[in-house]
Write a structure and sequence with these properties.
Length: 248
Amino acid sequence: MGAVPSTDEIQFRSDMTVELVRSSAHDSDVLFAARVSTQGEKTLEAAQDGTEADEKRDRGLINYLMRDRHGSPFEHNSMTFYVQAPIFVFREFMRHRVASYNEESGRYREMRPVFYVPGAERKLIQVGKPGAYDFEPGTPEMTELVSEQTRQVSTAAYDSYQRMLEAGIAREVARIVLPLNLYSSMYVTMNARALMNFLSLRTKREGTHFPSFPQREIEMVAEQMEDQWATLMPLTYEAFQKNGRVAP
């Protein structure tokens, strides 16, 4: 083990990292899965000539499936994202039992001193009732207080963590002092239907059929996942938007 790190070695961030590392996800996956129900498996081999009529028919079918909530055709695809975010974001993530997760382990590796501090744009004042909270900007003094206290506690916690490791205490024990704003990383794999379910709950958008009020930090992750998915499956994404952002 090395020496207890100085404050300069500790990193503070206010952003989230989301990378699409692997995907097999196309609008055609939805179309094949849907058409085999009525036309048989030969449609999986059938080639289209890419005409305007084909695109119109495809868009119509996907919209019908989304609108009438025929969900299973949206499951025949896969996306794997690499995510770096604070631990408290991951705990919210794993409320969604529609994906596969592999997170770095504090039992087997030494946790890096990277901590989340809300950016200046993060709204700090909570108003409203449970389940329908809204947030308003804090004062500059509030923003400074959050930053100061978060940095102070994070630094002290990591110092305690390092001292226990230096003493030969197992990582799985030493990690108990680390706060929830410590960054972790994970791979998350899901299909488009599961992702739509996630996005419907973890983003706040005007015009949705079922308004959601997510914590801002997990919404920051969801927004990046949504942007990357939208380029993979544009017709499916268009139908999701058109039909009130409800998972089929």
